[in-house]
Amino acid sequence: MGIMFVFQGSTMAILNNGFLVNCPSPLQDQTVTGAFQDGTFFPQDGQVHYNVGYVITNYGNSSQTDVGTFFQCKITGGNPAVLVQNKPYGAALGNCATFCIPYGSYAYYGDVIYSTLGKLPAYINLLYSYFVAPAQITQIPAFTYIQVFLLSLISLGIFMVIRSGG
């Protein structure tokens, strides 16, 4: 019981950051309805894992009226939540038969970069939680340093084998 009490904060951090990392990327020219987050209980670790599910109802035809779907996942009050927005990713300024500015596509690329870079803190928190978890269980603070040192030696060894060609 004591180990679970010490480790519970890390497992919740791992689950919440895993939800943020697995948030869907924006969809261009596709409309989504019925977006949901389901909580699946895994008896192996006794935790509820949340995922985002959705149904694509409209596949676009790359016209100026096409809309895309943007997903924003966040943790509010310890509970995962997803916000789904329709955005005009097919919008353009001007007549595309001669010359136009596809500002909807630029918005799509910006949202893809935003959602990808927005997952970076969750990845860093996941790595930190994985490194700190053994030290929390064993109650040995130096265990994290030992683990990082051993992983760096393994990485150095793999690098040396690849570098030497065999």
Quick description:
The protein is an alpha+beta fold.
Oligomer: single chain
Beta-strand percent range: 25-35%
User: Main sheet: which strands, in order across?
Assistant: 1-2
> Structural class of the secondary structure composition?
alpha+beta
How much is the average pLDDT? 78
Give me the number of helical elements: 4
Give the low-pLDDT segments: 1-5
* Main sheet: strands, sense, barrel: 2 strands, antiparallel
What descriptors fit this protein?
166 residues; alpha+beta; two-stranded antiparallel sheet; 4 helices; 6 strands; 47% helix; flat; disordered N terminus
How would you describe the overall organization of this protein?
With 166 residues, this protein is α+β, with helices and mostly antiparallel strands. It has a domain at 24-118. It is 47% helix and 30% strand. The chain contains four helices and six strands. The strands form three sheets. It has a two-stranded antiparallel ribbon. It is flat and about 65 Å long.
